[in-house]
Amino acid sequence: xxxxxxxxxxxxxxxxxxxxxxxxxxxxxxxxxxxxxxxxxxxxxxxxxxxxxxxxxxxxxxxxxxxxxxxxxxxxxxxxxxxxxxxxxxxxxxxxxxxxxxxxxxxxxxxxxxxxxxxxxxxxxxxxxxxxxxxxxxxxxxxxxxxxxxxxxxxxxxxxxxxxxxxxxxxxxxxxxxxxxxxxxxxxxxxxxxxxxxxxxxxxxxxxxxxxxxxxxxxxxxxxxxxxxxxxxxxxxxxxxxxxxxxxxxxxxxxxxxxxxxxxxxxxxxxxxxxxxxxxxxxxxxxxxxxxxxxxxxxxxxxxxxxxxxxxxxxxxxxxxxxxxxxxxxxxxxxxxxxxxxxxxxxxxxxxxxxxxxxxxxxxxxxxxxxxxxxxxxxxxxxxxxxxxxxxxxxxxxx
Amino acid sequence: xxxxxxxxxxxxxxxxxxxxxxxxxxxxxxxxxxxxxxxxxxxxxxxxxxxxxxxxxxxxxxxxxxxxxxxxxxxxxxxxxxxxxxxxxxxxxxxxxxxxxxxxxxxxxxxxxxxxxxxxxxxxxxxxxxxxxxxxxxxxxxxxxxxxxxxxxxxxxxxxxxxxxxxxxxxxxxxxxxxxxxxxxxxxxxxxxxxxxxxxxxxxxxxxxxxxxxxxxxxxxxxxxxxxxxxxxxxxxxxxxxxxxxxxxxxxxxxxxxxxxxxxxxxxxxxxxxxxxxxxxxxxxxxxxxxxxxxxxxxxxxxxxxxxxxxxxxxxxxxxxxxxxxxxxxxxxxxxxxxxxxxxxxxxxxxxxxxxxxxxxxxxxxxxxxxxxxxxxxxxxxxxxxxxxxxxxxxxxxx
Lengths: 399, 399
Hints:
2 copies of one chain form a homodimer. By secondary structure, chain A is an alpha+beta fold. The first copy, chain A, is built from 11 helices and 15 strands. In chain A, the strands form 2 sheets. In chain A, strands 1, 2, 3, 4, 5, 6, 7, 8 and 9 form a 9-stranded mixed beta sheet that branches. Chain A has a 6-stranded mixed beta sheet with strand order 13-12-11-14-10-15. In chain A, a hairpin with a 2-residue loop joins strand 11 and strand 12. The radius of gyration of chain A is 22 Å and the shape is globular. Chain A starts with a strand and ends with a helix. About 2% of the residues of chain A have low confidence.
């Protein structure tokens, strides 16, 4: 597998662009991603029951038609704006469709940013022609820039691999920052591939890959109303058709997991105020649900996260978070390690080198390992530490 | 009902004291509370499955015997210390029993503070005689001081009321600060009463009152391994026996709820770094479980908490937290208000006075009201805002 630093325009037949339309101050805030030929597509959306109107529209379009373009804006989530928000999204899609000479159902739309503010539709419409004119393989990554909110940097990757001697490529970019949680929080993620793949196989691969990556991370436990992951597959690689099972499906899914895991890590490290990546691995659980529950309990513990930020090896907070998770466990069997340094077993501290442990807490990535010794199920959750900067960013997000 | 500023020594027949034994620097860290006559007792403990050893000991003592004394230390949780921690707790209880001339089973013990550090037993034993000698009605509140960790101030209250013309009094004090969550987190709470009450009635009243108060608050979602609420009833008020039902039970429970609600609010306002009390009231839920789930989802949202801290009326975060809670709801029916200012209905913002809303966010207490309009169940959860100071306190708790 070859890995590239470029993103969504790496696979054959994709172009993108980003412009500043005036939602944000100075920064790029309107993006467009197109496939030169109609592409089948799939998406995973937030499980928040009070969600943004673009989600219903996109679901309908993906079901009805092949897709050729995605329009996205940042700085305004167009969420909780009632019927007006829905109509604004539709209106923008229609404008883009006319401009790009495709059916409205071939256009998807996504928004991210502040909630409950109407889209400045006139500003956005005005910049659509410029956006279309700028479409290119986008060497300046303007599309990946245009989707950002409080993110510090562009997060993208692409990989290629062979399916029966034909090179297939997957590219992607993501925005995140706050409200990041299982079921994908404030995430917008755009994936492209030139693979020839069945619609059902694309859907299955995306669902499984998201479950193993984006849905296993949390920043602060908040789940946003706008989260969306989109994938388009335009078939230009001319590989042998990938079906819902078999070797080529496995290859495709593996590459997709690689892309999404890379984007997940970048997203965590670029989370609001984050200084460290924390990986919580729970094994020996009786059920997969228990493994996830215990891992998320540790990952969402603000006490664990602040200890990591403060580089304070206060491992009792990890044990306590496991105990609080209501999973099946036998107290005497629970083990907690940092990297391979065992600190807790038989309900008491183990002999360990305190300097070694302190050094682990100083690292940019902290691995917390929990073994419940009650079964053979395991789960890994990614999170970040909780810093003063997170509070500063979120105390005045709108003001 | 009469309300007093004094605490656990307000009911007849209780004495208490606090001393500095050397666990903490300079501050009081060892406390003793006694009843002059044997008292029936009840307790509610943490649901954390990896808990402190004092809990098993206390449970056995409460079941076996009337109780006459509670020893408590702060600064060291004596938790995750294995068999040694259990034996240390027993040893201290035995020492106190000899000194106070009571059976060991008449003594309870509780610890709070840093996890996974052995108790400095010699220091504690050495100060027990001084502690016993100082026992009094404790006008300086040294007992309530001795239980504190990162708390800023003593939190106590007492109330008295009449049962068939006999005055009955309930007193209490609490410590909290961090790790506060439903199921009582890091809380240690001591309650005393001179009521004549059946053991079963005392247990029932305590369980119900805790469920309505301490278990409906959250600071950051962490549940500590040491949480304990104790109540002693020594019968010195000589009132007509309170049974598990009837008017006098209702009176007693009402007074107990009053005491615990007052302590809960004080605990929230004294939470680490807290600047505001936030009350989330969810009504119109299909089930009580849904009402609680939605209220806790809002209460545990760090985005909501940081917005309250920043006095930023970012109500979209409340709507999003409700949507993320996975409760039964119909999007179009959900209403969100702050005090009586309706901001969200029919999935869109309502017309409201932005200055009035801004003023609400500047208040010391913020009332968030959610109506799901899907049923008639309701729940109220208390929490506080999340400030920079919380991070500072928790990033270096041990160092």
